[in-house]
Amino acid sequence: MLSRVVSMLENQNPQGISILNDLYDRTGRAYVLGITGPPGSGKSTLVDRLVEYYRDRNKKIGIIAVDPTSPFTGGAILGDRVRMQRHATDSDVFIRSMASRNSLGGITGTTSQVIDLFDVFGMDLVIVETLGVGQSEIEIARTADTTLVILPPGMGDGIQAIKAGILEIADVFALNKADRDGIDALESEMKLMLEFHTGKWVPPLIRTIALDGTGIEDLVQALENHRVFLESGNMLDRKRSDRHEFALRELLKTLLTRDLDRLVKEHHEFKNLLENVRQRKISPYEAADRIYGLLIQRNTREGDR
Ligand SMILES: Nc1nc2c(ncn2[C@@H]2O[C@H](COP(=O)(O)OP(=O)(O)OP(=O)(O)O)[C@@H](O)[C@H]2O)c(=O)[nH]1
Ligand SMILES: [Mg+2]
């Protein structure tokens, strides 16, 4: 059932949204954990460990893997195949991988809807795994209550490139593959970086070895501490209300752009103004301003009717 509704949302079948509309008052209970990091840093292996930990404590978990580089069926996404099967037969763990490109509004579109849906279905924890490159990591931080950034040793200068972005979004760092050479260097570099951190919450650095589960308890504790930090001082509420505002704006953008092509083409002034731009009588900036003004007027009139 859950799986079918997720598909409806992915395919933008209106029935999916209609189900969410009806059940929306049941949301607000799940905790959303965002996990991001460079390709192959061990995100999925770590997710598998976290699932194991929370399942031992009887939590229901929903997992969304956005744009995984390792295909689901290959089994790499959550460690080995055996593990996948173990979770696959567990009715309190629901795993879904999805492509952000297929959804309008990227991760904040369909992914938010699926998070809400998991919430409706009583998941205690929703984990969203995204690849830490580009826009998706910023978006995940906006969507999640707590954002975990996973870094492996041996990235060389790679870390320089992602520094600026991750400092802003990370609530907790997992320095994974702590069994590997270079883990000390990574930790010192991160410590140095965090010295300049001015926020009230300084992201802790937790060493983990996702392969054998080392450090998982410390990691869970750090995530829990962040949650407590957010809950004290109403920050969780504020964060969630920011998330709602962002989601609402994104939805409006989608609605506004959906009809834009048609509106613009049908608009009587559009051709005139375009011709004027062609002849360089007015600039495209001015033309856009004027058309925009006309569209707003027209919408206001339609709204009044
Ligand atoms: N040595 C070592 N290898 C690890 C550790 N954690 C994960 N790996 C290995 O690193 C590889 C990538 O792990 P994944 O969990 O698939 O990494 P990922 O970040 O989810 O990868 P993508 O989703 O493809 O970006 C796998 O071969 C893992 O077995 C660790 O702590 N130590
Ligand atoms: Mg993965």
Which terms summarize this structure?
13 helices, alpha/beta, 7-stranded parallel sheet, 55% helix, single chain, binds guanosine-5'-triphosphate, binds magnesium ion, 305 residues
- C-alpha Rg (nearest Å): 23 Å
Helical content band: 55-70%
Major sheet details: 7 strands, parallel
Q: Which strands sit side by side, in order, in the main sheet?
A: 3-2-4-1-5-6-7
* Spans of at least 5 consecutive residues with low confidence: 71-84, 102-106
- The percentage of residues in β strands lies in 5-15%
Structural class: alpha/beta
Task: Report how far the terminal alpha carbons are from each other.
Answer: 41 Å
Bound molecules: guanosine-5'-triphosphate, magnesium ion
Write down the secondary-structure element order. HHEHEHEHEHEHEHEHHHHH
- Number of extended strands: 7
Q: What form results from the Cα inertia axes?
A: globular
Mean pLDDT over the full residue set = 83
Number of helices: 13
